[in-house]
Specification:
Length: 127
């Protein structure tokens, strides 16, 4: 979304801009708000899930390797197969994935809220 807004801001002949009464280029707040609302309403759940799954999977793989190595060094027993099949670990990885998905979604919402607030303040102030 950031790229779309920034790209539109660089194109003065685009729908984001209009000539005002003073003859200079100004951002059309209505057009910008319309685009922001479109992004706000779009569902990005699958993208957030992919990012979160990748993040948790990489962390899990690194953690599994380190814990397995440490346990083997300390006990002399390879427990890596047990760690992979532990229902407690699987449950915790799933919890972390859900938590990361929610965090990723909240970042998008927070960003859109900040942009919308800035646009509304500019409109109220007559900019």
């Amino acid at each position: 979304m950031t790229d779309d807004v920034e790209r539109a801001m660089q194109q003065p002949q685009g729908s984001f801009f209009m000539d005002d009464a003073k003859g200079f280029q100004a951002i059309s707040a209505k057009a910008l708000m319309k685009v922001l609302e479109k992004y706000e309403k779009s569902d990005r759940t699958s993208q957030a899930e992919n990012i979160a799954n990748g993040f948790v999977s990489r962390g899990d793989a690194q953690n599994h390797t380190e814990v397995s190595t440490n346990l083997k060094n300390q006990t002399g027993i390879d427990l890596s197969a047990y760690l992979r099949n532990s229902p407690n670990i699987v449950e915790r990885v799933n919890e972390l994935t859900v938590s990361n998905i929610q965090l990723i979604k909240s970042i998008r919402t927070q960003y859109l809220d900040k942009v919308q607030n800035a646009v509304m303040q500019a409109m109220v102030q007559g900019h």
